[in-house]
Amino acid sequence: MTMVEHSAVLEGNAEQVWSVLKKFGEIRSWHPSIVDSEIEGGLPDGLTGCIRKLVLADGAVVRERLLSVDDRALTLSYQFEEAPLPLDNYVATVRLVALTEHSQTLITWVANFDLQEPNTAEHYQALIRGLIVEGHNGLQGLLAQ
């Protein structure tokens, strides 16, 4: 299994950050690579098991299933249902930790996946890390508004 992890500090308190992140279907409002996102089947956003359909800037479609949401622990996990990448068993987890001395939040993004082509680990780790960092920067930009 291949893993990518990215941790950074966001300006904003954990409750403010969580209120954005837990809106699973609204990722298009802060991730610059996603031009459209919606929850399929009319299910409520944030319901465990719901699937969000993402349309990327290049027109590719990704479908992700929400595996867990924990409002107390400020964490959520999701998996790829469909993606135009040669990856299997992709599961990502996002965790928030309040930095109580400041109006800041430590955010940790972890993605685990299997490669269909074993010699591509560095390439796909860099690709996933790039998407995570881009999303992190977009989230910080939204919080700064």
Structure report:
It is globular and about 45 Å long. It is α+β, with helices and mostly antiparallel strands. The chain has one domain: START domain (Alpha-D-Glucose-1,6-Bisphosphate, Chain A, domain 4, 2-Layer Sandwich), CATH 3.30.530. Helices cover 21% and strands 45% of the residues. A 7-stranded antiparallel β-sheet has the order 1-7-6-5-4-3-2. The longest helix is centred in the C-terminal third of the chain and has 23 residues, at 121-143. The N and C termini lie far apart (38 Å). It is built from 2 helices and 7 strands. The protein has helices at 14-21, 121-143, and strands spanning 2-11, 34-39, 51-56, 61-70, 75-82, 87-99, 104-115. β4 and β5 form a beta hairpin. The model has no long low-confidence stretch (mean pLDDT 95).
